[in-house]
Design a protein that fits this description.
single chain; alpha+beta; SHC Adaptor Protein; 4 helices; 30% helix; 38% strand; globular
Length: 191
């Protein structure tokens, strides 16, 4: 497994990098077949260290976790435990996913934009209804079944996931509703 371990405005020593590689390797290989790469980022938030880890699996699925603690090793250990819990919870489905899908998940390129939040005041009228784009990035949209999309959303902890529905070949959305259930948007085709 390839590792990318970095720190945002903090130095990451070799001892921490070795600890992350050994511990994450054991945790992930216990539950997932053939992980391909891992990205671990450490940062500071006030008096705490924050650890964010993302592991890409050979099936195309991605697992991610985030944790914080007052010590950097404790932040990583908490993050690793969260990821291990997610992978343990989805172990059977991940194995079934790999068995049913001999080829990795197909990914399609797309553009992703970050829009500036409009300042909401009662007195000021916006000059234009066009939002201001403050960042543009490339992203990937996976071709998944609805069940796989829900599992992917749960593994990454994301509130919403856009995916291409394998059965209908159209773009769909799954999202976590305020009541805790999962919503699924499946646009009707014109034909």
């Amino acid at each position: 497994m390839r590792y990318q371990i970095s720190g945002k405005q903090i130095d990451i020593g070799m001892a921490l990098q070795n600890h992350v590689q050994e511990e994450l390797d054991v945790a992930v290989k216990k539950y997932a077949e053939r992980p391909t790469d891992a990205n671990v980022v450490f940062s500071r938030s006030a008096h705490e260290y924050v650890c964010e880890a993302t592991v890409h699996l050979s099936t195309g699925m991605t697992a991610s976790a985030k944790a914080s603690a007052t010590e950097i090793y404790a932040a990583f250990d908490a993050c690793r435990d969260k990821m291990e819990k997610q992978l343990r919870r989805y172990k059977r489905r991940l194995k079934d996913h790999y068995r049913d899908r001999p080829e990795p998940v197909e990914l399609f390129g797309a553009s992703s934009y970050i829009l500036a939040a409009g300042e909401q005041t009662e007195e000021a009228e916006p000059e234009t209804l066009q939002p201001i784009i403050i960042a543009e990035m490339e992203t990937k949209i996976a071709s998944l079944s609805v069940g796989e999309a829900v599992m992917q959303m749960e593994l990454t902890g994301a509130p919403v996931l856009v995916f291409r529905n394998e059965k209908k070949n159209g773009v769909n959305v799954v999202y976590r509703r305020d009541d805790g259930n999962i919503g699924w948007i499946d646009p009707q085709s014109d034909g």
